[in-house]
Amino acid sequence: MSTPRGRPLRRPGTAVGLAAVLLGLTYGYDGTAMAGAQILVTRTFHLSPFEQGTLYAGPVVGLMAGTLLAGRLSHGAGRRGALVVAAAVCSLTTLVSALSVNLPMLVGTRAVLGMSMGVLIVIVPVLIAESVRTAIRGRVAVLYQCATAGGCAATYFVSYLLAGGGHWRTMLVIPAFCAAAAAVALLRLPETPSWYLMKGRADRAAAADRVLGTLEPDTVPEEPASPEELSAGPAQGRLRELFHPKYRRLTFFVVTLGFLVQITGISAIGYFSPRIFQRMGYEGDFSLLVLPGFIQLLSAVAALVCAVAIDRVSRRTALLTGTALMTAGHLLLVGVFADILPATAGLLGLAVFAVGFNAGFGALIWVFAAEGFPRRLRGPGASAMLLSNLSANLIIAQFFLSALSALGGTATFCLLLAVNAVAWCYVYAKVPDTTGRTLAEVQAYWEDGRRWKGPPVASAAPETPDGERP
Fold this sequence. Notes:
This protein is mainly α. The model is unreliable at 1-8, 216-235 and 459-470 (pLDDT under 50). It has one domain (12-194, 236-453): MFS general substrate transporter like domains (Growth Hormone, Chain: A, Up-down Bundle). The protein starts with 11 loop residues before the first helix and ends in a 23-residue tail after the last helix. It has 18 helices and no strands.
C-alpha cells in the first residue's frame, strides 16, 4: 500500500486513528478551554454575568453554523479535504483568539472557531466510517471520543498550572498546535473511496482503496449507476431528503438521540464543573480546577476501555450500561444537594456520570448517523443530529446556572435525573445493535422497517492480528 505521496502505509486503520485522536484532542480542549480561563478573562475585561454567558454562546452559535456548512463542504471538498480546511481554520483562529484585546474580538474569534469545530464533529465520524474496515470501525470511533475526553482533562490541568500567573492567553492557544498536527496527519491519507464512488470516479476510488482497503460490500454503491449518472455525478444530499419516507425513521431516531445526549447534562458538567463544586462546598483552585480535570481524565480512561472492548461487546449493551451509570451519577448528586450524602459523594456522582457518558453516549452517538444513511446523506444526517444536539446544548448553557440559583441543586438535579431515566428507556426501546454489521446491512435495517435480514456479515470474516480483515 502507499499513501498519495507514494510512501508505504502499512496500517491504514492506525493512520486514520491518529488523525482522529488529534482532532479529538483539539475539540476536547477547545470545547472546555473557557471553563478554565473564564475567571481570568472576566477579570481582564471586567465582564458582567450576561457578558460571561456570551463566552459560551458564541462558540455554540458557531457550531450550529458549522453543522449547516459541513454537508456541503464534505460533498464538495471531500471528507479529508473538509477536515483539513477545518483544522487549518481552527489553528489560525485559535492563535488570533488568544491575542484578543476586547470581548467582541474574543467572542467573534471563538464563534469562528466553533464553526470549524462544527465541521469537524460532523465529518470525523463519516471519515472513520468510510476509511476504516468494519472490524475496527467502532474501536477507532471510540478512540476519537477518548481523545476528546483527554483534551477536556488537559484543559483543567493546564488551567491550574497557569492560573497563578494569570496566563489565560496561553490556556487558549494550546489547541492551535493540536489542530496543525491533525492537518498534517490528514494530508498523509487519501480521500475516502466512498466519496470518490459518490462522485462517479471509480478509478480514484480503487486507488484510494489500495491505501485504505475499505471497499467491502458496505462501501460499494447502494444502487447500480448508469453511465449517464456516472458522467453527471450523483446529486448532493440535502437536509430535506432526510424526511423522505425511506429515511424518515432513521432521521427521527438520530435527531432524538442527539437531543438526549446533551439534555442529560454533559455540557453542564463540561462548562460549569467549578460552579457545581462550589455549590457542594468545595473551595480553592485545586478543588475547582484539578478535581474536574481528574473527572475528565477518568472519562478518557473509560472511553479508552470502551475503545478496546467495543468491537467485542454489544453497542446496545454499552449504551444501556452507560446511560444507567449516568442516571446513578445524578442520583448521587441529588443526595448531596438534599443533604442526605456527604460532599465526597458528589465528586463520585460527577465521576460516575462522566464515565457513563464516555462509555456510552459519548463513545457511540455519532456512529449511528454515519452508519445508517447512504453515503451521499451521511453529511446531512450527521448535521441534523448535531443541530438537535446543539439545541439541547444551548438550553443547558443558557439555563443551567439560572436553574441552579433559582431552584437549588436538589430540584435541578432531580430534573436531570428524570431526563436520564427517559433517555435509558428510549435507548432500551429504540436502539438497534449494529456491532459487526456492515454499512450496507445497517442501511438496509432502517430502510426495511427496522428488520435485520440475517446474522452480521462482518462477524463471519476472520481478522488479522492487528484487528483488520485480510
